[in-house]
Design goal:
CATH topology of the largest domain: Rossmann fold
Largest sheet: 4 strands, antiparallel
Strand order of the largest sheet: 6-7-8-9
CATH architecture of the largest domain: 3-Layer(aba) Sandwich
CATH class of the largest domain: Alpha Beta
Number of strands: 12
Structural class: alpha+beta
Number of helices: 8
Helix content: 40-55%
Number of domains: 2
C-alpha cells in the first residue's frame, strides 16, 4: 500500500521478480477493500497515505489478523516507527530505501511466519513452558486452551527466549536472530516488541513476568 506511484511500481516489479504475486493499493480505502477480498501472506504499508494513515490500517488488521506487516516510513519520523511497532507492525524500512533491502525484509518476514525450520529442531513440534504451549507447526501460542494473538515477530521472540531459560540475550543478538541478517535500525525496536509480548503474555502462574530485563544488557526468560 503505497501512494507514490513510481515507488509502488518499483516495489511491485522487484517482488514479482522474486516470484511474488503483488497487489498495489494507492489509498487506505483501496487497501481496506483489497485486504477484505484476499488473504495476503505479507503486507507492505506506507504510513503516510493520501486519505489516512498506515498506522490506522495496522490497528484495524491486527484486530483480526496476524499477517506480517512491514511499514515504509520517512527517516526522520522515529515516533511513527515506534508507534507502528507498538500497534503490531513487525518491521519497518525507512525512505529512501533500496528495493533489494525491502525484498530481503519481506522474504525474512515470510520465512519467519510460514516456514518451519525450528519445527524439526530435535524432532519437536511443541514447546511447553510453564502454562504456555508453543506450537511450532501452527505458529500458535496458547495458555489454558486460549490462543494468544501474537505477531510473527512476537512468536519468534518468545520462542528464542523460552527455549533458552536463564540465558541473557542482548538487543543486538535478538534482532540479528529474528532477521537472520544485520538489522539496520534502532536497538529500541526490540524494546517495543518485548513490551508488546509481555502485555500479551500477562504474568506467569506465580504472578511474575515471564521475561526479565537485565539492565544495561538485554532480556532473558525467567528460570523456575
Amino acid at each position: 500500500m503505497e501512494d507514490d506511484y513510481a515507488v509502488a511500481l518499483g516495489v511491485r516489479y522487484a517482488l514479482e521478480q522474486e516470484g511474488w504475486s503483488v497487489t498495489v493499493a494507492a489509498t487506505a480505502e483501496a487497501a481496506r477493500l483489497a485486504f477484505a477480498a484476499a488473504d495476503f501472506a505479507v503486507t507492505v504499508v506506507d504510513i503516510g497515505l493520501p486519505d489516512g494513515s498506515g498506522l490506522d490500517l495496522c490497528r484495524e488488521w491486527r484486530a483480526k489478523s496476524a499477517v506480517p506487516i512491514l511499514f515504509l516510513t520517512a527517516r526522520d519520523l522515529e515516533i511513527d516507527r515506534v508507534l507502528g511497532l507498538e500497534l503490531g507492525g513487525d518491521d519497518y524500512v525507512t525512505k529512501p530505501f533500496s528495493t533489494r533491502e525491502l525484498v530481503a525484509r519481506v522474504r525474512a518476514l515470510y520465512r519467519r511466519a510460514y516456514e518451519l525450520p525450528r519445527a524439526v529442531d530435535r524432532g519437536r513440534t511443541r514447546l511447553q513452558v510453564r502454562d504456555l504451549t508453543i506450537d511450532l507447526e501452527r505458529h500458535r501460542v496458547s495458555r489454558g486452551g486460549t490462543n494468544l494473538q501474537l505477531t510473527p515477530t512476537e512468536f519468534d521472540l518468545l520462542y528464542i527466549l523460552a527455549r533458552h531459560p536463564g540465558r541473557v540475550f542482548t538487543r543486538a543478538e535478538l534482532l540479528n536472530l529474528l532477521w537472520d541478517t544485520a538489522f539496520e535500525g534502532s536497538l529500541n525496536t526490540i524494546d517495543v516488541h518485548i513490551h508488546n509480548l509481555r502485555k500479551k503474555l500477562g504474568t506467569a502462574p506465580d504472578g511474575k513476568s515471564y521475561i526479565e530485563t537485565v539492565r544495561g544488557v538485554g532480556y532473558r526468560w525467567r528460570e523456575g
